[in-house]
Design the sequence.
């Protein structure tokens, strides 16, 4: 640009020097002044060119400058043995991670323009850790937004201040690298950047989630060298990065300096196609070799060796090809070029799958004309076949698979978008431990280390391109000037990750409409890599079909509400992908005869806050339909940022907490694990629903059950089956099943050697069986539990009620009715009828009114999908709005006092309570609630009261150990659980309903002297105990705002509304019908017993 300006000025000077006495318009006389006219034309053209030229970072047709072609991940080694081991610490690389000099400017207009120069003084600059996001280091503002761009959309321009970070790093070039080619590798920079080496400009790149590599061989010198990098927070590429996550900036993944010889393997592509019987494989290798100028490669060869997990070379002879045949490959004028430059049949190799991830090490060597090793590279490969057969069945190695997946964002609660290898590894280990077998890299390629772990641990990966333009819909997908950007992001992803066996699908991006740019990218991928299926959820509707409905018509909406089809999808995608289907929609979609491709719920079961209800029912449908290949939960991890308040209390921040605008508040908090990677209650439900082995009762009295192996490939030979029988939570028998080797997909009836049980009065008996590992693996130790089930045994004997002769006194006045003995006192409010106090032997057991309870602190799903949202005020205030109809007391024949309270809200609800108090201080409470259709539905049917927080030791006999609800309790087990009250809470990032336990037979709250209160249900109850009241929980925006009271709130319910969660923004977020509380009569009872 500077050259153009200078030359234009020269032309203008010459022009004026010959025309200084004439008006400028006279130059247009072509006949007499052709030179002058030409000069003016050149000047004006150049000035228009200068004025019309966009910044590099605001030009969608400029993606990079001087950047190397994308390639598969590999490293150069100087020995074959080091290459075969694959430990990159021994590779020819130098990590440039660590402290860099750093300068931040909030606006690109103020950025440093000469910092890259050799004589620049950066002594006053601060240090910043690389990799990192500069917002997490105190520079700029983290922004959490979803659909809305952080700037006013005007592609490709950035209409807001554009922060810039400038980085400097010096390094010492190893002496033995002086004759090598050098590549500067940035694994991820957000969102656009320039690079200089030793004061010379190297290049430019954009695209935040893929590597950028530059050949800097001609820029480095012996000894010390300096790298300068200038990063722009926003660029035209940001229009394709409008994902639902934190927007952060900087060099957020590793930086490496890679050395390689002048003749090196620049790339290679490996395929491992299986034969029709899924037995033998054809190993095909397509290498690329880069040769520096003036090197004679005659007699040079490339050879391939293949090693198994025991480091044994399984090829009789290395596969060999001359280097010049690779470099000078002839492409035919018709037909395709042969893919396998090197290929060989491999007889019955061990296959790779998510269940048994067998890996081989492929080593590629370059040798010179004397047979000396010049370079060695390696990669892990797996022999596996992915295909779609029949009427849309997804198969791996010939077996129909179900994708039990999650959507995964890069997220660290302390690093933001920068993750440590330990955090990445922890993700993969947790996924395997909880029976998750698939990941969608939502919505961009992840760090390469993640794929290496997925290869090794066994996880199916849907690799997704870094394309989302949610805020402008499909505008860019239909604009040809953006085609290069779409193509580059897809191609570079495929090139980097093409050799990973874990990658079974390429996804073209997310929520960016549909257009020819998607189709073009899909066309390239289909031709380049036909071994994986192509996914893109936005590709919906088949316009050429006579059944097609325009998106904006009512007919479209009616069809979509039924089965989400229209009536099929474009042919450039291989699967039918949908987001957030209801159970009915998923079922109807599977029935659609026009759909002959696998159906995948690429996002479903929105796990925001207290959610993931009716998850078991989703999988009953998925397993019942071969065409449904599974789905990916939204999503894996809460995206909370760890913060500490002024009092030193930690909490997790979300959108808006940093003053970020726009923001979508806590919509980033929807993981099944917490921001610090602590498992949440939801993930236990996943593990149970996904478990690979199931247990079904045949005849429990005889201990007869069926064990079904749902694995596709793995037998049960490396597992042991153990069982216990318990009596009210106390183990009384145990045993195991020896040598049960069930082949994949098979089942067997077994008889457990349960000894005869003579039931005791009032006791329950439970059989628990589980499958545990007998071998240690990458993610678990010996004894790790993979699958389990619990059965109630049919042994019962009714307990006889104890007869108590009571002598009680009753005192009545205008305020109270008091029932007492010398040991206890129970009070009722005479005007409202509610129980207002309960003391036993001088100790306060209930220090509040015992009220009806129809409300809970709203969950995220409640706020959007609760059918009775317009009745929120009614149900919130109903307990205080109940008017007393009658209050009566009477003495029963045995001396017990019975107090009957009738309350109502006229024409809406009637509530009757019958209190029966005996001489021992026990209070039985019978509750009957009638709800009119006009006010259906409440979120709970129960009662609530307060008790002093000195009773902080809680025990209960019911479902646990984790929090559970009516529609999320399949994984929980009946047992006796004990701990501090606070241990039974679950602190959601944005406080809401939590800590519930279902099917509770009894629970107690005791102090350290074993005194307190016990509640026994007539039938199983739902209970929770909090150190706060409902209004406190609802008011708080973060956990640190919840200050505990000096009393506990005790909730005793007959039932509570399920948590739901098909989504969290529409009526779909309401739980399914069988877990709702409708207009009817509810009857339940429980007994309060003093414990001393």
Sequence:
């Amino acid at each position: 640009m500077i050259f153009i300006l200078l030359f234009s000025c020269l032309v203008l000077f010459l022009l004026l020097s010959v025309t200084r006495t004439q008006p400028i318009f006279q130059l247009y006389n072509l006949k007499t002044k052709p030179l002058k006219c030409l000069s003016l034309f050149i000047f004006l053209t150049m000035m228009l060119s200068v004025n019309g030229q966009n910044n590099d970072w605001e030009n969608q047709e400029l993606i990079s400058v001087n950047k190397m072609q994308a390639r598969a991940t590999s490293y150069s080694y100087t020995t074959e043995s080091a290459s075969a081991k694959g430990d990159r610490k021994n590779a020819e690389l130098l990590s440039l991670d660590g402290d860099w000099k750093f300068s931040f400017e909030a606006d690109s207009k103020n950025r440093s323009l000469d910092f890259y120069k050799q004589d620049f003084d950066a002594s006053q600059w601060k240090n910043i850790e690389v990799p990192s996001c500069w917002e997490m280091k105190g520079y700029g503002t983290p922004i959490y937004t979803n659909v809305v761009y952080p700037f006013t959309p005007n592609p490709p321009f950035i209409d807001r201040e554009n922060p810039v970070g400038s980085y400097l790093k010096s390094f010492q070039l190893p002496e033995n690298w002086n004759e090598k080619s050098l590549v500067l590798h940035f694994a991820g920079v957000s969102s656009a950047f320039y690079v200089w080496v030793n004061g010379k400009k190297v290049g430019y790149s954009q695209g935040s989630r893929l590597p950028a590599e530059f050949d800097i061989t001609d820029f480095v010198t012996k000894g010390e060298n300096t790298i300068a990098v200038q990063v722009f927070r926003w660029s035209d590429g940001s229009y394709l990065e409008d994902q639902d996550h934190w927007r952060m900036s900087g060099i957020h993944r590793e930086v490496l300096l890679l050395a390689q010889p002048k003749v090196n393997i620049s790339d290679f592509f490996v395929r491992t196609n299986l034969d029709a019987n899924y037995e033998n494989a054809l190993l095909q290798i397509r290498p690329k070799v880069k040769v520096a100028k003036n090197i004679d490669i005659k007699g040079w060869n490339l050879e391939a060796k293949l090693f198994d997990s025991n480091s044994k070379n399984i090829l009789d002879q290395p596969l060999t090809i001359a280097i010049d045949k690779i470099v000078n490959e002839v492409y035919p004028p018709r037909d395709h070029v042969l893919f396998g430059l090197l290929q060989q049949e491999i007889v019955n190799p061990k296959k790779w799958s998510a269940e048994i991830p067998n890996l081989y090490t492929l080593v590629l060597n370059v040798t010179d004309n004397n047979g000396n090793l010049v370079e060695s590279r390696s990669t892990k490969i797996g022999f596996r076949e992915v295909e779609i057969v029949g009427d849309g069945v997804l198969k791996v190695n010939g077996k129909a698979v179900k994708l039990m997946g999650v959507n995964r964002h890069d997220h660290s609660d302390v690093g933001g978008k920068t993750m440590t290898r330990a955090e990445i590894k922890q993700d993969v280990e947790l996924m395997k431990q909880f029976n998750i077998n698939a990941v969608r890299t939502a919505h961009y390629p992840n760090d390469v280390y993640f794929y290496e772990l997925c290869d090794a641990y066994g996880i199916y990966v849907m690799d997704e391109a870094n394309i989302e333009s949610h805020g402008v819909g499909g505008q860019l997908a239909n604009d040809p000037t953006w085609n290069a950007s779409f193509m580059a992001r897809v191609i570079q992803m495929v090139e980097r990750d093409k050799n990973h066996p874990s990658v079974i699908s390429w996804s073209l991006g997310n929520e960016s409409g549909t257009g020819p740019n998607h189709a073009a990218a899909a066309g390239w991928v289909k031709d380049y890599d036909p071994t994986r299926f192509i996914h893109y959820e936005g590709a919906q509707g088949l316009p050429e079909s006579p059944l097609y409905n325009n998106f904006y018509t009512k007919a479209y909406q009616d069809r979509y509400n039924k089965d989400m089809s229209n009536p099929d999808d474009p042919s450039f995608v291989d699967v039918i992908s949908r987001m957030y289907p209801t159970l009915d929609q998923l079922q109807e979609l599977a029935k659609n005869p026009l759909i002959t491709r696998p159906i995948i719920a690429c996002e479903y079961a929105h796990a925001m806050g207290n959610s993931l209800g009716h998850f078991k029912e989703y999988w009953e449908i998925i397993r019942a339909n071969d065409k449904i290949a599974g789905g990916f939960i939204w999503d894996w991890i809460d995206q909370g940022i760890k913060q500490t308040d002024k009092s030193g209390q930690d909490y997790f921040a979300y959108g808006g907490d940093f003053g970020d605008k726009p923001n979508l508040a806590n919509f980033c908090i929807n993981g099944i694990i917490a921001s610090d990677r602590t498992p949440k209650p939801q993930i236990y439900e996943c593990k149970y629903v996904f478990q690979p082995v199931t247990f079904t009762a045949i005849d429990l009295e005889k201990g007869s059950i069926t064990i079904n192996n749902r694995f596709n490939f793995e037998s049960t030979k490396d597992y042991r089956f153990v069982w216990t029988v318990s009596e009210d939570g106390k183990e009384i028998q145990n045993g195991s099943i020896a040598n049960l080797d069930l082949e994949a997909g098979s089942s067997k009836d077994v008889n457990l050697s349960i000894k005869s049980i003579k039931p005791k009065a009032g006791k329950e008996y439970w059989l628990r069986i589980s499958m545990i590992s007998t071998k240690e693996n990458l993610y678990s130790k010996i004894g790790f539990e993979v699958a389990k089930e619990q059965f109630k045994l049919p042994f019962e004997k009714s307990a006889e009620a104890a007869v108590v002769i009571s002598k009680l006194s009753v005192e009545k006045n205008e305020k109270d009715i008091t029932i007492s003995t010398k040991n206890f006192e129970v009070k009722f409010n005479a005007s409202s009828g509610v129980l207002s106090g309960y003391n036993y032997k001088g100790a306060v057991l209930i220090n509040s009114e015992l009220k009806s309870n129809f409300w809970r602190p709203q969950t995220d799903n409640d706020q959007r999908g609760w059918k009775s949202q317009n009745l929120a005020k009614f149900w919130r205030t109903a307990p205080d709005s109940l008017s007393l109809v009658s209050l009566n007391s009477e003495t029963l024949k045995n001396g017990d006092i019975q107090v009957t309270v009738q309350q109502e809200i006229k024409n809406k609800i009637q509530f009757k309570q019958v209190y029966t108090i005996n001489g021992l201080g026990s209070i039985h409470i019978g509750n009957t609630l009638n709800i009119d259709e006009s006010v259906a539905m409440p979120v709970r049917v129960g009662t609530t009261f307060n008790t002093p927080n000195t009773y902080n030791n809680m025990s209960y006999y019911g479902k646990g150990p984790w929090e559970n609800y009516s529609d999320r309790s399949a994984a929980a087990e009946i047992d006796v659980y004990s701990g501090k009250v606070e241990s039974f809470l679950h602190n959601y990032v944005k406080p809401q309903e939590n800590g519930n336990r279902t099917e509770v037979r009894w629970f107690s709250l005791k102090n350290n002297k074993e005194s307190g209160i016990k509640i026994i249900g007539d039938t199983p109850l739902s209970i929770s105990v909090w150190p706060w009241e409902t209004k406190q929980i609802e008011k708080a925006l973060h956990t640190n705002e919840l200050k505990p009271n000096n009393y506990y709130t005790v909730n005793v319910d007959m039932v509570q509304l399920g948590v739901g969660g098909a989504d969290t923004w529409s009526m779909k977020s309401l739980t399914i019908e069988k877990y709702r509380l409708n207009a009817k009569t509810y009857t339940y009872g429980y007994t309060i017993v003093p414990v001393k």
About this structure: The longest helix spans residues 34-51. The radius of gyration is 35 Å. Residues 2-53 form one domain.
